[in-house]
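Course assignment 3, question 2. Fill in each field.
Student: A.L.
Task: Predict the tertiary structure for the chain below.
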Amino acid sequence: MGTGQLLLPRLRQEVIQVSRRLHQSGWVANHDGNVSVRLRGDRFLITCTAVSKARVDDAALLVVDSKGQVLEGRKRPFGELDLHLAAYRARPDVQAVLHAHPPYATATGLVGHALDCPAMPEAVVSLGPVVPLALRAMPKSEAGVQQLQALVTEHDALLLSGNGALTVGDDLEQALLRMELVEHLAKIMSIAKGMGTVRPLAPAELEALAAARTKAGLGPQARASRAKAKAG
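Answer field:
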């Protein structure tokens, strides 16, 4: 039995657990949200459509190819699979993608705002100075796919106007932690702006945090360094 076959049962359990954690956290309702993870051979393990994330089980999982065609499973893929596949095309390093509707992050995107006031050092190191906003696009539109693909090249977390948030990661846990931080940051910023003016970090502070982010192996500069070392 190959390594990939040994890993698949574990990954299936991780997808189930992450799906349920999204629901338990209050970041999805009804049939909201979707979870995917990259497999070997240009294949992806995903949640299906029309099933609550609280009720995802092994039968609710599918394996699809890079065009979204179902290879394994009896249910239908979720409608926003093209966004996940766009993220995987843009970022060969990405191994997992999550899409959810955490309330504060979703509300921030609904009013047309990005999380673009870098005021908290820990968030800057983990997510970068900006969590950008992808402008509203109709489902399955090519414009929406191209916009997301361009943004995810430089960012690990995005707000989707009218459509929640999307995070990527080296694995499902990292993608989930990034979703958690996006929602936490959006909530803090919402509360803080109601109290007064939020002051961003100074340029010199941001420069130091950017260096710490790269040193931690995060962000586009660290990815470029790894790619260069691998090529060399």
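Instructor remarks: Residues 1-6 have pLDDT under 50 and may be disordered. The first helix runs from residue 3 to 24.
Grade: pending
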